[in-house]
Specification:
The protein is of the alpha/beta class. 48% of the residues lie in helices and 16% in strands. Strands 1, 2, 3, 4, 8, 13 and 14 form a seven-stranded parallel beta sheet that branches. Strands 6-5-7-9 form a four-stranded antiparallel beta sheet. It has a three-stranded antiparallel beta sheet with strand order 10-12-11.
Length: 473
């Protein structure tokens, strides 16, 4: 039986500042799923990219005294180089300033308009520049403060185009009733509760007089598209939409569509975006996987708050694979996680220097010194249940339990002593250890690709590798 092709996409990074580890976690997480599915024999298309329009970017560029396109070109390049630095396997890097994407955004607008779901009206509301979103007063904290950016919202009155989200109350209720369209399950319940309260139409444009950095509204040069309406379209424009065939047909229409996003994206990805797709006559997303926030001192880590940690700083300190490991093992896949450099240093030393690195060195030193190479057998290290419920953290915890078990085996059996009195028994012990290490490295190929391959090559060559994870200085 032919397996469905699988599509996976991150959200696209908003280029108003340098990359931070929140996005670093998201893209590495998506990379693991893409590698995992490829190992299982699926054809995979992995998308990421940058969101380059909107009021925040226009303001930042103006403050910097830079032309807007030049400003976004620089930050897009900072995100694009994560591919090499984090050893990412994505197939496409989309930019919302790409001509094809802007044409696709205009196409989805026209389809929704033709379906009767876009209209124009004057509107007054509370607007958060950080979120680029109008809020209802009940959604805000005392003093009309945005719960995400902890800053007061602005009262804005203007004439905008609106999308008739209210037309999709029943459709979204039915869509969200399907178990598995959102992971984890409690986020699905959150979306269900949001829809049950009643859906209001939302603004999808801004007056050009107030914001001139965006995709023009088809047929109205006085308005530009609201950044979210433009940006959400990237998930299908990346596959060549509105062309119906090719990659779009294979990976979206006939394939399994997976999106990865932060927990603050539920209303955008699983409500607004799904209504837009339905209005445009496009299949709904099959699954959205929502992760929590990375916090610092209990406060959300974000570019707007200025309390971020750069993934490039972590890579310089720990290396590529170690950074991947630390994010995937210690950032909870669904809940918030508090991260400090002190914690990261401790985990790096305990798990990689003293853990995997030391175990590899001990086993390979014995096999090399005693001339006892391992006869590897072709094998598959994964099955469909290995990464259960999209929880990479649980998978890595299980692998590190196996590392601890091999360490305990060495302490109990002491093959380094046994070799002097019973070489046959010691050889069996060492082959058992090599087999276990090979299995661990095989499982790690999707998490820590370079380190895993180094260990597998060392086993095949029967030669202790150089220092895999240097001690911090």
């Amino acid at each position: 039986m032919n397996k469905k092709a699988r599509y996976i996409t991150t959200t696209i990074a908003y280029v108003n500042a340098d990359p931070h580890i929140g996005f670093g976690y998201e893209i590495v997480s998506a990379d693991v799923f893409a590698r995992y599915w490829r190992r299982l024999g699926y054809e995979v298309f992995f998308n990421t990219g940058t969101d380059e329009h909107g009021q925040k970017i226009a303001q930042k560029a103006d403050e910097a005294g830079q032309e807007r396109q030049k400003y976004v070109d620089y930050y897009a390049s900072e995100y694009a180089r994560l591919k090499t630095k984090l050893n990412l396997s994505y197939d496409n890097f989309i930019r919302t300033t790409d001509p094809h994407h802007k044409a696709a955004a205009a196409a989805i607008w026209r389809r929704c308009e033709a379906n009767g779901d876009i209209y124009k009206k004057k509107y007054s509301g509370l607007y958060c520049v950080g979120c680029e979103l109008f809020y209802q007063e009940a959604e805000l904290e005392a003093g009309k403060v945005c719960p995400i950016h902890t800053k007061p919202c602005q009262e804005v009155t203007e004439e905008n185009y609106f999308f008739r989200l209210s037309n999709y109350q029943d459709y979204l209720k039915d869509y969200l009733s399907r178990v598995g369209v959102i992971e984890p399950e409690w986020r699905r319940q959150e979306a269900i509760n949001f829809v049950a309260k009643g859906l209001e139409d939302f603004s999808i444009s801004r007056e050009r007089a107030r914001l001139d950095w965006g995709v023009p509204v088809p047929g109205d040069d006085r308005q530009v598209m609201y950044v979210w309406f433009d940006a959400l379209t990237n998930y299908i424009s990346a596959l060549g939409w509105p062309e119906a065939g090719g990659a779009f047909a294979k990976f979206w229409t006939d394939g399994e569509v997976n999106q990865v996003a932060g927990k603050d994206q539920v209303r955008f990805q699983s409500i607004m975006w799904q209504a837009m797709l339905k209005s445009a006559g496009v299949k709904a997303t099959d699954r959205v996987i929502y992760h929590g926030f990375i916090t610092s001192g209990g406060q959300k880590m974000s570019k707007s708050l200025g309390n971020t940690i750069s993934p490039y700083d972590l890579i310089a300190r720990y290396g590529t694979d170690a950074t991947r490991y630390l994010l995937l093992r210690y950032v909870h896949p669904f809940d918030d996680t508090d991260i400090t450099l002190e914690k990261l240093d401790g985990w790096y030393t305990a798990d990689l220097v003293n853990g995997l690195g030391n175990l590899t060195a001990r086993i390979l030193k014995m096999s090399e010194s005693y001339g006892l190479p391992h006869k590897s057998q072709p094998r598959e290290y994964f099955d469909e249940e290995t990464i259960s419920n999209f929880n990479q953290q649980a998978t890595l915890t299980k692998i590190w339990t196996e590392i601890s078990s091999l360490d305990e085996y060495i302490q109990k059996e002491e093959p380094f002593k046994k070799i002097k009195v019973d070489k046959v028994a010691a050889a069996k012990d060492i082959d058992y250890l090599l087999s276990g290490l090979e299995n661990i490295a095989g499982q790690l190929t999707i998490f820590m690709p370079e380190s895993a391959e180094l260990i597998l090559r060392a086993i095949a060559d029967n030669k202790k590798p150089d220092n895999l994870f240097p001690r911090l200085t």
